[in-house]
Amino acid sequence: MSAVNITNVAILDNPSPFLSPFQFEISYECVVSLKDDIEWKLIYVGSAEDETYDQLLESVLVGPVNVGNYRFVLQADPPDPSKIREEDIIGVTVLLLTCSYLGQEFIRVGYYVNNDYADEQLREEPPQKVLLDKVQRNILTDKPRVTKFPINFQPEENEHGEQPTASPPPEQPSEINDPEQLPPHEQPAKSDEEKQPPPPSPSLDNSE
């Protein structure tokens, strides 16, 4: 059982120009209080053949992580075009949203991204050199790929042979700066692992 579950992901300002920032509104629930922050990363896959072209766009630590429901916006700069082979800029690639605890990645959400010219004439007759200011980025949100990895969320307790147990929810929401803890009437609907979260955000098809 994971201590943290993503309940919703809304990709803002999509589609958008290739050089515009990424904005992901992430909603998640924590069922066990954690002593350390969780780390969210956004990674742009620059080449399907060579992972050395991958770019870490943003990495943020979020905490404290008490029992409850949370929401925050992860904003990241676009990838550096100079670090992408020109033949790989136009076309389909992948964007990865990951979450880790104590250096252990426990969830990864992959999205296909289609980069192409917004102008039909440029699509039919692409210039020899890519015109970055004319390229539009479209994140395909309908079928994200979700992969979960089992990790140890309570290593210090397991070292003493104790089984981690869920902490009871606080009577009042704890004060936090980032992310926003949702009041009861704004909590996103929870869903079983086999179910999809409610619209308008894309469905998250869980896969092991």
TrEMBL record:
GO terms for biological process: cell division; DNA replication-dependent chromatin assembly; double-strand break repair via homologous recombination; mitotic cell size control checkpoint signaling; regulation of cell size; trichome branching. The keyword Chaperone applies. It holds the Pfam family ASF1_hist_chap. GO terms for molecular function: histone binding. InterPro entries: ASF1-like (IPR006818), ASF1-like_sf (IPR036747). It is found in: Nucleus. The keyword Transcription applies. Belongs to the ASF1 family. This is Probable histone chaperone ASF1A. It comes from Spinacia oleracea (Spinach). The gene is LOC110800114.
